[in-house]
């Protein structure tokens, strides 16, 4: 029997924010197993954690329903919450990942991610993106300068971001990266939405990794290093962002939704149980 903790991230109210699955393992699963579990969960990401040598160190991998990804904010935040609440970890936790070492600090009801900042450069948006958005006003294009970097479309108002109903079939023709649409916020510093149909996620609820580029982008435009961001998906969520040189701190809350148990001969691993104990699956 394997437990998958389903936790909402970047949320203060129950049943909002972005849900991730978190699985605490004693040793790694095969990639095919992790992908199959993520597909069964159906969330934007499912995170798999394996303890490493050293104090409060864990390896983390993230899978959407269709692919493994290099970086995921909300599933890292929920991983920190599960380690604190279920395994009894405290303080700063370090995760080794495909994007280097990442830190989650637990401080009361809040958790803070320490992620690498992503630079943003002006770029001409592909025709498929412009057609998919079908916007009448001016749209400024940018690209996050990282592997499979996201496209960024800047529009003038929060209302324009809310009104977008993108053509997902057109967006699927844009092979690399996802699409962020962003604007100044009416009740916060900036707002955004995130679309990634090629990753099995038409619209993500709250995207921590996208704010690794959005926070520095808006920090420069607004002349401030601490910003409040709202992601305007149907579930919605908020992220407190702080830009510190080449790092971005992303702060938010998490709440447990439910715990799901998967069974069958498919699972031959061990998982970390309450209080840090290990049990056979």
Descriptive report:
The protein has helices at 31-41, 73-85, 127-133, 158-163, 168-171, 211-222, and strands spanning 2-9, 18-24, 45-51, 57-63, 68-69, 92-97, 100-107, 110-116, 120-122, 140-144, 151-154, 179-184, 190-196, 201-204, 226-231, 237-244, 247-262, 270-272, 278-280. With 281 residues, the chain is of the alpha+beta class. The chain has 2 domains: 2-116 and 254-280, Diaminopimelate Epimerase, Chain A, domain 1 (Roll), CATH 3.10.310.10; 120-245, Diaminopimelate Epimerase, Chain A, domain 1, CATH 3.10.310.10. The N and C termini lie close together (5 Å). The model is unreliable at 265-281 (pLDDT under 50).
Strand content: 35-45%
The second-level CATH architecture of the largest domain is Roll
Give the count of helical stretches.
6
Tell me, briefly, the overall form: globular
Instruction: Report the uncertain regions.
Output: 265-281
Look at the helices and sheets and give the structural class: alpha+beta
Q: Give a quick account of the main beta sheet: strands, pairing sense, barrel closure.
A: 8 strands, mixed, barrel
Overall mean pLDDT: 89
CATH superfamily membership of the largest domain, which one?
Diaminopimelate Epimerase, Chain A, domain 1
Oligomer: single chain
